[in-house]
Design brief:
globular; 238 residues; 7 helices; single chain; five-stranded mixed beta sheet
Length: 238
């Protein structure tokens, strides 16, 4: 039995609240159980210097955790003058994931910055951030389309979502919360498109190496979970 009482293939309750931020072109408060992440999408009419006059746009991301998102207060990274390696790794993952489903030429010479701020953490913050960031990005593009700047169907090629899977108490499980994540024998994050394409897989054995059969089981759990998430995304933006 999982600490939460969920079945091995059962995800936490997932919800999306659109237009959470008044000022951003697109925003979404995403909840994976007790993990809550605010995702905002901001449009800039410029590109990074290396893309100037290329005809292409850019999608990038920043990620952070509020000081009391966890059980003990964390110092703000700004107070130390630099981001942690974990923060940099996660925000690069979010950016790569979103760019995988965006036609940068169709976007034009513009940049969309996605900010993912963890309000409350209970495991799976990066997977929740990616999944909610898609909604914020979609709504930013709809904002642009309403102003005759782009056509969403030309810019957005697919859905993108992410979920964690792992081996906990010798059982493959999906969508690990903190209690499971902190004691997992194997921990993996899967980022996939709505059409089934794999964007990124991060997998680590915390002790005993995992087998190919176990990996394929985790991949199957992830595929089913991402199908559920994409269905919820479609329902949310319909």
């Amino acid at each position: 039995m999982r600490p939460s009482g969920r079945k091995t293939d059962q995800m936490r309750k997932v919800s999306f609240e659109r237009n959470f931020s008044k000022h951003a072109e697109g925003s979404c408060l995403v909840k994976f159980g007790d993990t809550h992440v605010l995702c905002t999408a901001s449009l800039e009419e410029k590109t990074p210097p290396w893309l100037r006059n290329s005809g292409k746009g850019w999608v990038t991301a920043e990620y952070g955790m509020l000081p009391r998102a966890t059980g003990d207060r964390m110092k703000r990274e700004a107070a130390s003058g630099k981001q942690s390696g974990r923060t940099q790794e996660i925000q690069r993952l979010i950016g790569r994931s979103l760019r995988a489903i965006v036609d940068l030429e169709a976007l034009g010479e513009r940049q969309i910055s996605i900010d993912c701020d963890v309000i409350q953490a209970d495991g799976g913050t990066r997977t929740a951030a990616i999944t909610g960031a898609f909604i914020a990005l979609h709504d930013c593009l709809k904002w642009m389309e309403a102003r005759s700047m782009i056509k969403v169907e030309k810019v957005l090629k697919d859905h993108i979502a992410a979920v964690s899977c792992g081996i906990f108490a010798s059982q493959p499980v999906i969508d690990l919360d903190y209690l499971e994540d902190s004691a997992a024998e194997t921990d993996a994050n899967f980022v996939m498109t709505g059409s089934g394409g794999i964007v990124e897989i991060q997998g680590t054995a915390e002790g005993k190496p995992f087998s190919q059969d176990e990996f394929l089981t985790l991949l199957g759990l992830a595929r089913n979970g991402i199908d559920e998430l994409v269905a919820l995304q479609k329902q949310t933006i319909a």
